[in-house]
Every structure is written in structure tokens, then in C-alpha cells.
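Known limitations

C-alpha cells in this collection are predictions and should be treated as such. Users comparing against experimental data should check residue numbering before alignment. To illustrate the layout, the record for Velvet factor is reproduced below. The input appears on top and the generated C-alpha cells appear beneath it.
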Amino acid sequence: QRFLFKCVQEPVSGRRKTDKDRRSLAPVPIVRMWVKECYQDVMGGWSESDLDLSDIDPSCLICEAEISPPVDLPAGVLPQSLKTQGPSNHRSSWISDQHWDTRSVAGPSGTMQGYPEQVQHLIADAPGDTGRTRKLPHAQPDEELEGSGRSGKKARLEVGRNLFGALHVSGVKVVAPSGELGLWFLFTDLCVGTEGNYRLRFRVFDLSVIKPQMPPVPHFANCESEIFKVWAPKAFPGIPKPTELTEHFIKQGFKLNARKNERTARTPPPE
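Generated C-alpha cells:
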């Protein structure tokens, strides 16, 4: 079998997370996975066809999102995702010169809510590109009050944490706009704590292969997003117009982030 894993809907922009307000990246990042059945023909060559997804349990597939270090762009150059908001056409395999630490999970709490602790360990500690380190910026000063609540106690954010929300999502099987059944991962709750240009990386794990007392399982497919921009709250231009794919999933009953009181950006935000 062969797996094709691609970010089919790119995040375009985001509003920096603050102590009082958190808004998800928009459009909602959507990742799709294709499963190919490979076989050898009578001539000795290899062919492939799409595997019937009805035999796959999507709840066993968990996709993890992590964020890159800030991406430096030349002055006056917009991230590619802000120039064109059409279908994704970037490489689907993970090839990048960014430095990631795939041995750890950057998230809102360091845990995968809804999954057993032993499963969290087997995924979070999965072996990756050893020897690489990820350097993330510190949180903004006003975010050091995160979690203070009524008690008045200040709870400082974990050093280096920059991506917040639901970083682990289960797969769902939904008919694609073109009519065939698809396997999707919807990241409806992701926000960033520091302004700048970033990429997202997505890795998928199969929980069905996890057994008691076994070592951490590696991911079996991964991909990256295009570069997107995170704005300061006062400079945020508003969420982009809903995409056809977003509207398709809304019609299927999914709640994708679209604030009714948020103005819509009609044109790409200015640099």
C-alpha cells in the first residue's frame, strides 16, 4: 500500500492569541489522505488503484499538527497562501530545510485530550529526525497571564510553546465535492501565540497498530502547508471569504470556524 497525504486547504492568516481572545487560523486547515493499493501486472510493472475506504476505520487514524520556526521573507513579499487562495499545489511529501524536533509535541497542554495516557506516550515520543532541534519564539508578554482566572495567580506559558488548540484530530470519511468518498482531517481549532510567518506540518499515526508494552510508533505519512501569516490583533484584516471546500463541509454538518461578528477580508491582506 502507498499513502498520499496532502494539505488540500491552506491556512491563509491568523490573529495572534491573547489572554482574552483566541481565534482559529482561517481558512480551516484541511488535510486529505489517499490510500493506494499497489500490485504487479503481468508485464512485471507496478500499478496502483484507490483502496476502498469503507474498510478503513478513520477513528484509528490520528493526525498531529506542529508549527515551524518563524519563516523569514524578503521585504514586500507576501506568503504564497496570501497571493492565491485556490487549491493547494505544493509538494505533498515532507521536504523542508526547516529544523523540527519530531521527538516532542508542541501543543496547548502536552496531552491528547480524549485519548488514553499510554496512547499519548506512544505517539508523542515517536522517533523522528533525531538530532534536529526546534527553536520557537517566546510567548508575547500579555500571554504570561494565561490561565490566571479568578484566583489571581499567574500561570506562565510553557517556554517555546507557540501553537495552541486541538493539535490532534481523528480522521473522518466524507464525500468529496467531486463525488467520491474521502478521508479527511479537519483542524478547526488552531491558533498561534506569536506574530510572524509560519508553516504547519502534519503527521498521521495509526492507533490500531499500538499494542501494550510496545515502543513508540512512528508516523507513516506527513505533509506541510504553505507559509501563512499571523497578525497582531489590531492589524488583523479579518477572516478570508469561505472557500468552496469550507462550505462543502459546513453543508455536511461540520462546524468550521466562521465568526458571525467577524468581518470578511475581500482581498489579500496588505503587507
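For this record: The two ends are 44 Å apart (CA to CA). The chain has one domain: 2-262. Please report discrepancies through the issue tracker.
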